[in-house]
Amino acid sequence: NAGVTQTPKFQVLKTGQSMTLQCAQDMNHEYMSWYRQDPGMGLRLIHYSVGAGITDQGEVPNGYNVSRSTTEDFPLRLLSAAPSQTSVYFCASMGSPGQSLEQYFGPGTRLTVT
Amino acid sequence: AQKVTQAQTEISVVEKEDVTLDCVYETRDTTYYLFWYKQPPSGELVFLIRRNSFDEQNEISGRYSWNFQKSTSSFNFTITASQVVDSAVYFCALRGGNNRKLIWGLGTSLAVNP
After folding, report:
1. Residue A1 in this model has a pLDDT that exceeds 80
2. Of B43, B46, B104, the CB nearest to A43
3. Are A105 and A25 in contact (CB under 8 A)?
4. Which residues of A touch B46 (CB under 8 A)?
5. B95 touches chain A (CB under 8 A)
6. Do B47 and A102 meet the contact criterion of CB atoms below 8 Å apart?
7. Judged by CB atoms within 8 Å, which residues 49-88 of B form the interface with A?
8. Left, alpha or beta for A29 (phi > 0: left; psi -120 to 50: alpha)?
9. Is the confidence at residue B18, as pLDDT, over 80?
């Protein structure tokens, strides 16, 4: 099992550009989520999904879109990048209650918006 | 409301010292789960332990031990005979009942100096 994979690892964008951060998991987990991590602010939930076709907003959803067309993939789209979106982004997955109770994380994507 | 507090922002110790990282939580759920994650300088988030609210037994894994006390709403993490490789940011997190979302503390940055 590869676990949770994220691409790219590093990305530099100019203000106003759009891009998609990819996330995939091969553990057949129902739950997937995106976090951003900023210094001194811990991990903040952007969007999450409890299954294919179902997504919902976390605490900092503005400027981001997600979709979940398959169980495996949960891409995060930045519609029009802003310097405030400079951050490290983590994707995580978790199985059903009988499967696993903890979240497993991808390696992260370090995004810089200039 | 649910909340996780890690009062220690930064801790610095000398190798071989014992160190305890504090975690205090708030929840109204009768069933909940507590977690510790480690984020080494390389940046990935590594799951360390999960503790269920109905199991107050303390746990030891090598040099790591966890003390869960419902009476004080605390889930503290002790590293015995610390090593330089223990240098990392450690996060405590809470998940309540059937809620899949994790509530995160802001993390404690541990520096173990040779």
Report:
1. no
2. B104
3. no
4. 105
5. yes
6. yes
7. 50
8. beta
9. yes
User: Of A14, A4, A70, A13, whose CA–CA distance to A35 is shortest?
Assistant: A4
Pairing relationship of beta strands B108-113 and B10-14 according to DSSP bridges: parallel
Residue type, A9: K
* B104/A42 CB distance under 8 A: yes
Q: Name residue B50's beta-bridge partners.
A: B35
- Chain B residues closer than 8 Å to A110 by CB: 43
* Partners of residue B97 in chain A, C-beta under 8 Å: none
Q: Given pLDDT bands bounded at 50, 70 and 90, which one contains residue A95?
A: confident
Mean pLDDT, all residues of chain A:
94
Sequence-separated (6 or more) residues with CB below 8 Å from residue B76: B20, B21, B22, B23, B66, B67
CA distance B100 to chain A (A): 8
